[in-house]
Design brief:
The protein is α+β, with helices and mostly antiparallel strands and 492 residues long. The chain has three domains: 245 residues, 2-enoyl-CoA Hydratase, Chain A, domain 1 (Alpha-Beta Complex); 87 residues, Roll (Pdz3 Domain); 83 residues, Muramoyl-pentapeptide Carboxypeptidase, domain 1, CATH 1.10.101.10. The protein is built from 15 helices and 20 strands. About 7% of the residues have low confidence.
């Protein structure tokens, strides 16, 4: 079972690293040490390559010789462009920095779209499962949600083009399009006998990265999922509204599972929360200080608690570290990911680019969190399955199946209170427990895990994670310990 647990953890870590890489761009201005960076609509350019026919460095000749030899003599024709791109990727891999990445023009356009936080499409997050394109979630208020698309729906065709087996990039290409245009999608819904067609109007989709609510009278809660170019505006509007409503008990800032993003957005938010003084400093390759960002804000008259976990990274760590170092908040949860390197885009010829590490940031106390992370003031565990269940989509599972997917299913059922052994083997007991869950949820009690069961199980875990969120519940209890704040800092 321990071996299977390791497999699950490795799979989930891989998912998080993909998310981290997708939001890993940070922007800063080296020439303005006493000012925060302006919000960027797209990544800034730091290098622009000017091709030359002359090879000034003789050590580089071997690269061009290798490309020429393969192009002229390899028994199967290979396009020179493919070899050049492969050479660039090999150079990047050789420096062993997972944050440095190569982008071809298509990938670069998608990457910039992610950092902008908006695009024109139907408003769904899709995944590829066994060559099928599956709706993982629909965005609130999006055309997809209004048209009736739901998690678990399999998208078979778009405008008559088959999606199955064509890959997720092809699906994204067909589903996105100009604002106001229509796309016809053929949908296979869990539990439905026949596919059906929906006509969905594309629109400009703004991805909300900030969620907020009042948990109790005078106690606010704000969650930041990532930092894109709209995050500060979202946060400031919701935060000011909360302050006007009255934060007499305090504020909980949830940065769990936040992979980071644009550092200028995190700095601007810090300038609203961190008391007057340093927020963060950027340090270059020779340990020279490239920039220091400051806050002019007054100390808040109410306590702040920040929730962090192993998947809080990059800009999320910057914000949490500044609040902790400046005694502006208490941190609850688990030690963060430990990613404090700073990347910028280096544009190359042909519309390609490299996301290149240029600096590291340090917290106000000089703490280098890279590969170490930020330790919470109060370490509180969270059941692993409640952290990762949202990424679970195994397709069909039934008796005699085995592996990490079965083990995760067993962990989910156990978390919901069903009697089950976690073995990674889909035995009779697992089938009985799943049948009981299906019956309790009003589904056909088949004992087979299918798409419909996935949708309902995920909804049940959503409810479970809200009720039994030990880290959030611990944070709420802290607000009743008035003496704690004067001892540690908080709102002293």
């Amino acid at each position: 079972m321990e071996k299977n647990n390791r497999k699950i953890i490795l799979i989930l870590i891989f998912i998080f690293v993909l998310l981290l890489a997708g939001t890993n761009l940070v922007t800063y201005f080296l020439s303005r040490p006493d000012e925060s960076p302006a919000a960027a609509d797209e990544p800034s350019t730091i290098i622009r390559y000017n091709p030359s026919n002359d090879v000034a460095d003789p050590d580089l000749a071997i690269i061009f010789e290798a490309i020429d030899v393969i192009t002229d003599h390899y028994f199967s024709p290979v396009a020179k462009e493919i070899l050049i791109e492969g050479a660039v990727k090999g150079i990047i891999n050789s420096i062993e920095d997972p944050q440095v990445r190569f982008y071809d023009p298509e990938d670069l356009e998608e990457f910039i779209s992610e950092t902008r936080g908006s695009y024109s499409g139907i408003g769904v997050r899709i995944i590829e499962a066994y060559q099928d394109i599956v709706v993982f979630e629909t965005f609130a208020g999006s055309p997809a949600e209004r048209s009736g698309l739901a998690p678990g729906d399999r998208l078979v065709e778009a405008d008559g083009n088959i999606l199955t087996g064509e890959g997720i990039n092809r699906a994204v290409e067909l589903l996105r399009g100009p604002d106001g245009t229509l796309v016809e999608v053929l949908v296979k819904r869990p539990g439905a006998d026949e596919p059906f067609t929906l006509s969905v109007a594309r629109a400009e989709i703004n991805i909300d990265t900030v969620k907020s609510e009042m948990l109790a009278d005078g106690l606010g809660y704000i969650r930041i999922d990532s930092f894109d170019s709209n995050t500060f505006n979202e946060f400031s509007g919701k935060f000011r509204q909360m302050e006007q409503s009255g934060l007499s008990r305090g504020l909980i800032l949830d940065l769990r599972n936040n992979p980071g993003g644009l550092v200028d957005q995190a700095v601007d938010i810090a300038k609203m929360l961190v008391p007057e003084g340093e927020i963060v400093r950027l340090v270059g390759r020779n340990e020279e200080v490239l920039n220091i960002f400051y806050s002019n804000a007054e100390r808040k008259p109410y306590p702040i608690v920040v929730l962090i976990n192993e998947d809080s990274a990059s800009s999320a760590e910057l914000l949490a570290g500044a609040l902790q170092d400046r005694d502006a908040a208490l941190l609850v949860g688990k030690t963060t990911y430990g990613k404090a390197s700073v990347q910028q885009l280096a544009h190359l010829s042909g519309g390609n680019a490299i996301l290149l590490t240029m600096a590291r940031y340090f917290t106000p106390s000089g703490h280098d969190i890279h590969e170490h992370g930020i330790e919470p003031d109060f370490e509180v565990e969270m059941p692993e399955i409640l952290r990762y269940y949202h990424y679970f989509f195994p397709g069909s599972l039934e008796q005699d199946d085995f592996g990490p997917d079965v083990e995760m299913l067993q962990m989910m059922l156990e978390q919901l209170g069903y009697n089950i052994r976690i073995t990674g083997y889909f035995d009779l007991q697992t089938s009985i427990a799943l049948s009981t869950f299906q019956e309790d949820a009003g589904l056909i009690s088949s004992g087979i895990f299918d798409d419909k069961t996935w949708v309902v199980l995920r909804e049940a875990l959503d409810r479970e994670s809200r009720v039994n969120d030990d880290q959030l519940n611990f944070a709420i209890d802290l607000f009743d310990k008035a003496g704690l704040w004067t001892v540690i800092g908080g709102n002293n």
